[in-house]
Design a protein that fits this description.
This protein is mostly helical and 236 residues long. Helix content is 67%, strand content 3%. It is globular and about 50 Å long. The two termini are 30 Å apart.
Length: 236
């Protein structure tokens, strides 16, 4: 998601929320966190259609790429993610973790040859995962209604707005070379989708309603991440 697309997404989210407030959202949703369920299910269907293209590519990558290549690619993008993680840990007041993450980026970018090798983990610097949505949650901002966006997937309102900040922090979207930027973004999408392949069969077998299953799993996971696993995450 580039910055301009993220801004347009925010405009849609805001407009949807305003219209929902003006109309009173006449019907009562089965889940209080999902008042726009008809819209979300429609977008879920759009994503399912898009996945008919993305999933085979991810399966091809997963089958063809040697394990060392996949590990190197995962490390490379993990190193990029550590940039945002370090900043968000500092914003959350986790100074020790934040400075550790800064060290990870410096070590892996240099000694680890651009992050292809995770040298930092080998010398004992633990990897963390933080984003601005988690930071807002730590600051007491409520998660708001649930949305399911095309390409982006499940998000709370808080995470939707936070995604704009995350996009601005992400070094990939600051590349001036547009072909290189788009290639990296595409490669990251395929890498991420390939990592989710093992969950596909589990979801299909466990879920009578796939949309409902993914929504609840997402909300539970985000609540756990915001509380650093200390809160029992129960979906309404």
């Amino acid at each position: 998601m580039n910055i301009q697309k993220a801004k347009r997404l925010l405009s849609v989210a805001l407009l949807t929320a305003v219209l929902g407030g003006l109309t009173g959202c006449a019907t009562t949703a089965k889940n209080s966190k999902d008042p726009y369920e008809p819209f979300n299910r429609a977008m879920f269907s759009v994503n399912e259609a898009l996945d008919l293209v993305v999933k085979p590519v991810a399966q091809g990558y997963d089958a063809a790429a040697p394990r060392p290549v996949k590990v190197g690619i995962s490390n490379f993008f993990g190193n990029i993610a550590d940039v945002g993680t370090s900043l968000n840990n500092l914003l959350q007041g986790k100074g020790e973790q934040g400075f550790s993450d800064v060290s990870r980026v410096l070590i892996n970018t240099t000694v680890g040859i651009g992050g292809v090798f995770d040298v930092a983990s080998e010398i004992g610097l633990e990897k963390h995962s933080e984003d601005f949505g988690q930071t807002l949650g730590k600051w007491g901002v409520g998660e708001g209604p649930f949305f399911y966006w095309p390409l982006i997937g499940p998000r709370t309102t808080r995470d939707t707005f936070a995604g704009v900040v995350d996009a601005n922090i992400d070094p990939v979207w600051h590349l001036k070379n547009i072909p290189a930027r788009n290639s990296l973004a595409g490669a990251r999408l395929i890498k991420t989708r390939a990592q989710l392949l093992p969950t596909d069969k589990m979801i299909e077998q466990a879920a009578f309603d796939k949309y409902d299953y993914i929504r609840n799993a997402y909300l539970q996971n985000r609540r756990s991440e915001v509380s650093d696993g200390k809160m029992s995450a129960v979906v309404d």
